Amino acid sequence: GAVVSQHPSRVICKSGTSVKIECRSLDFQATTMFWYRQFPKKSLMLMATSNEGSKATYEQGVEKDKFLINHASLTLSTLTVTSAHPEDSSFYICSARSSGRNQPQHFGDGTRLSIL
Amino acid sequence: DAKTTQPNSMESNEEEPVHLPCNHSTISGTDYIHWYRQLPSQGPEYVIHGLTSNVNNRMASLAIAEDRKSSTLILHRATLRDAAVYYCILRDGAPYNTDKLIFGTGTRLQVFP
Asked: Which of A88, A114, B17, B38 has its CA 20 to 30 A from that of A41?
């Protein structure tokens, strides 16, 4: 089946640090990638949708200058949490979908971000 | 986006069938019914999806009511590895749609040996 690799799986860093998370589709070309955030015991919240070669579309309430998304190729999207603070600590998950409508989304295993 | 309603939690014994219900009374004609599950500390995993007809795959079966206002995910023989949160999600298949998934609270399935 389709595989999405997310890296790193865990990050612990100091407040004010910027953190980059990578999401790669390993065996298919992902025209669209999605970024989610999940707090403990809560459901996934969609943050943004990114299409290869164009600007990401952010959900309401998500700061685009805080969460920078780049989708420069059909197999890689990155999320950069800029100047992270303790309230940004969360589980960040990406997903990718190949071309063709109604194809399933394939999810990475998530990145647990802890800001001290 | 059309909403879904699922029980917060369900329990099952190993080797028994499990029927996970989902209500979606405001479903539109172009909405597909998708099911994903999330194991602890992992990203969600696609399970199955359908539009009108019942669907089967190696993981599960999806039974869709004739009026499409409800559906049931069927795990034929639950194993301990099936313990997860199961999400029922409506996804608009219309060409103009952004194709994003909006997750609700899901059903937490516990499986007992």
From this structure: B17
